[in-house]
Every structure is written in C-alpha cells, then in structure tokens.
Amino acid sequence: MGPTLEDFLMTTDRIDRTVAWEALDSRGRPTVACRVELENGAHGRTVVPSGASTGRHEAHEARDGGTRYGGWGVRSAVAAVNDEYAPLIRGMRASDRAEIDAAVEEHDGEPNLSRLGANAALAVSLATTVAHGAAENRPLWSTLGDPAGGDAGARRATIPMPMINIFSGGAHAGRAVDIQDFLVVPLGAQSFAQALEQVSDVRAHCARLLDDRGGWSALVADEGGLSARLGSNEAALELLAEGIERAGFAPDAMSIAIDVAASQLVDGDDIVLAGQGDRLSVDEWLDVVVGWTERYPLVSIEDVVGEDDWRGSSAATRRMPATQMLGDDLFATNLDRVDRGVSESAANAVLVKVNQAGSVSRAGRVLARAQDAGFATVVSARSGDTEDTWLSDLAVGWGAGQIKVGSTMRSERTAKWNRLLEIEAIDGLPFAGASVLGGTA
C-alpha cells in the first residue's frame, strides 16, 4: 500500500520560509504583511488589521514611534517576524497551527505579546493558517476544525448573520455623533445573498434621507458607513428607522444594532455625550438606552458602558434581557475576561477580534468558551482593515453565527462580503438566520 495523503502532508507541509514586510491598511497606516511558504510549494499571505477604538486590555500592537508615518511605522514588528519568528517556526508543520501559535507566544514571553508586538505574532499565525488551507487544497473554512484547538470536533459551519454599518460616529467618523456605529441586522433574510441585497436597499434609502436633510451622503467613514453631523444620537436612530421603513421592511425583518464604544465617552463616573452637551450617570445613561429599545427595533447593543464597568454591564444585561448585549472592549477577546463576564452575567454575547488576542488559536479559544457558556458570538473586522478575506472563513468554519465587517462599500469591506457570497454559492452551506442573536429568546 502506498503512502496516504496524511503521510504526504506530514513530509511536505513543513514551513520552509517566512517573510514579513511593511504594508498599508485601509486608513493608510502601516501594518505587518507576512508570507509563509511550505516545502510543497503552498503558501499563505496575510496583511494584519488594526483598530482605531482600541481597548486597554487588547494584546499590545508594536509601533515604531518617531516621525515615519507619524509614528505608526511597524519596522520593529516586521524585524521580529524576519529575525526571530522565521527561524523559530521553520520546519514546523503548518497543520500544527496551535503548536506554532504557542511557540510564538512563549518566545515573546509577555501575556499581552508586548515584547515583540501582537501584530508580529498575528502575522505569523494568520499566514500559517492560510498556508495550511492552501496545503490541503480545501476551502480555508473547512480546515479550521475545533476553534478551541482541542479534540471536541468542529462546530457546525454556517454562513453568519451579518451586522452591517449604515451610519458612523465616534472614532470612526470624526465624532460626528457620539455613538460609534449604527447598524442593521437583516433578521428576515433567508440567505446571505438576500441579506446583503436588503441591507444595500436600506443604505440607499438612508443616503437619500440624509441628502434631503442637508447632509452629504458622499462622505463615508472608516468602515464605509454614512457620516453626518446629526442633531443627536437619537436623530441617527430616527433616520435609520425611517430608512428601514421606506425600504419596505417591518421592524422584525430589518432591525437595528448600535456600537456605543462607551469607553470613549467615560469621564470619571459619568458618560459624556459631547455632541449634544449631556453628562449622565451610568444609571441615567441606561435609562436613555432602555428608552431606545422601547421606541426602536434595537436588537443588539455593543459596549454600552466603559470597558471596566462590570457592575454597569451586568445592570444593562439585567435591564434589557431581550436585547443582545455585546462585549467588545469589555472582553478584548481575552479568555480571563470572558470567564469573568460569564460568571457575572455582564453580557450575553462576545465580539471576537483576532488582533485583540494576537493569534488565531487564542481567538478561537475565546469563541469556543463563549459559545459553551451559552453566549452568542460575533466575529469582527477592524476599522483599519485589509483586502484579506480570511475573516469570512473564520466566521464560517468556527460556526460563529454572526459577523460584523462594516458597510456595503470600500473594497476591504466588500472583499469579506464577497467571500461569504462565494462560500454560499460554491459550498452550499446553510445561512445561520435570526436565531443566533443573544438575548432574543
């Protein structure tokens, strides 16, 4: 009997060469690009994303400082890949992705990867993940296996429900309004293709409404959302609700999500809405948000209070049990923080961003822990993203259920939507549907 496919892969999927270089993200800032080449000729290439509204508890991103690119250069992180990680992982098998991630993390030596930079570690992790898929000549999503990296078996692969940006404020749009993102969730869609078509229609109606009210729909924010100085945060909700109605959708078929990114609004013990001149206690702020859930089809709220306000997060989840209460800065894709959130009922859903964790394995363990605890999970892009499409495959292969990428324009956003359309058309996977949201039961 001749050698099996497994025998072949064991001798040929070993890493031969790893090369990193400085590239640009969607905001024009430098980031780390990396290519991992295998002995069998397969390779994986990736360009690492970066956030704008970053939490204090994220893995540490290495930046050079100085005058190049306003201090945003990443030559030190590139050197870390080329000089330290490349020789470390040479000869290791790409299919042993968790072992490679562990070796990289041990070599850095700091829990938040601050010695050499999480962007350096993630470049290696992502490029290796893509190379593994290429070596097996299979869709990337189908090679991911158990997100926790164990032997429990893969979760059911599905096309995720999208959460799509329509209006932006906060750090993504020059603080045109205080709240960072106003999004829609196409709960009535029966397929991903239909979901994208429906949301595009809503965005077009909102753009016309914005123009009619003296705005300029040609202006877009970091993630492709519309940007305008509206009178208040609620004015954006009103406009979005009207756009949904004019597009012909009932509230239960096209609902609203918001990303408050409240850590940027915290001043001492208060929440400050500078755009409308309000200073509110956390309890007063929650009264406002509860009122919004009663007046608008608001099904998901992200980071409603500051990143370290566990009491406020628990209170918000208790007061709005029918709403998906989503933690981003609160959890920072960190396993210990998710464990605390589960024990304190500080949310019912976790946003997963691989660059917050610093490796695909770490992010996968966070997603698995959240799902095992009964939390909903949302795989998310960053505001400074790239043309890569691996995020779509992660959301599918991990069975995340939901994905948050940005709006329906800007090519770094549409690349990920287009990849999901491809997976749906070619691989025939089922659409997750509305049941994947947290807090809606």
* Content-based structural category: alpha/beta
Shape: globular
CATH fold title of the largest domain: TIM Barrel
Measured between the Cα atoms of the first and last residue, the distance is: 54 Å
**Corresponding CATH superfamily of the largest domain:** Enolase-like C-terminal domain
CATH architecture label name of the largest domain: Alpha-Beta Barrel
Unreliable stretches (pLDDT < 50, length at least 5) are none
Give a short account of the largest sheet: 8 strands, mixed, barrel
CATH class of the largest domain: Alpha Beta
**Number of strand segments:** 14
Number of domains: 2
Mean pLDDT: 91
Task: Name the features.
441 residues; alpha/beta; Enolase-like, domain 1; 2 domains; eight-stranded mixed beta barrel; three-stranded antiparallel β-sheet
Topology:
Elements: H1 5-12, E1 15-24, E2 30-38, E3 43-47, H2 75-89, H3 97-108, H4 118-136, E4 161-168, E5 181-185, H5 192-212, H6 233-246, E6 255-259, E7 266-267, E8 270-273, E9 278-281, H7 282-295, E10 298-302, H8 310-319, E11 324-327, H9 335-343, E12 349-352, H10 354-357, H11 360-372, E13 376-380, H12 390-397, E14 401-404, H13 411-427
Parallel strand pairs: 4-14, 6-10, 10-11, 11-12, 12-13, 13-14
Antiparallel strand pairs: 1-2, 2-3, 4-5, 5-6, 7-8, 8-9
Helix pairs in contact: 2-4, 3-4, 5-6, 9-11, 12-13
Structure description:
By secondary structure, the chain is of the alpha/beta class. The chain has 2 domains: 11-137, 2-Layer Sandwich (Enolase-like, domain 1); 161-436, Enolase-like C-terminal domain (TIM Barrel, Alpha-Beta Barrel). 37% of the residues lie in helices and 17% in strands. It has helices spanning 5-12, 75-89, 97-108, 118-136, 192-212, 233-246, 282-295, 310-319, 335-343, 354-357, 360-372, 390-397, 411-427, and strands spanning 15-24, 30-38, 43-47, 161-168, 181-185, 255-259, 266-267, 270-273, 278-281, 298-302, 324-327, 349-352, 376-380, 401-404. The strands form 3 sheets. Strands 4-5-6-10-11-12-13-14 form an 8-stranded mixed barrel, surrounded by 6 helices. Helix 3 (97-108) packs antiparallel against helix 4, helix 5 crosses helix 6 and helix 9 (335-343) runs parallel beside helix 11 (360-372). Belongs to the enolase family.
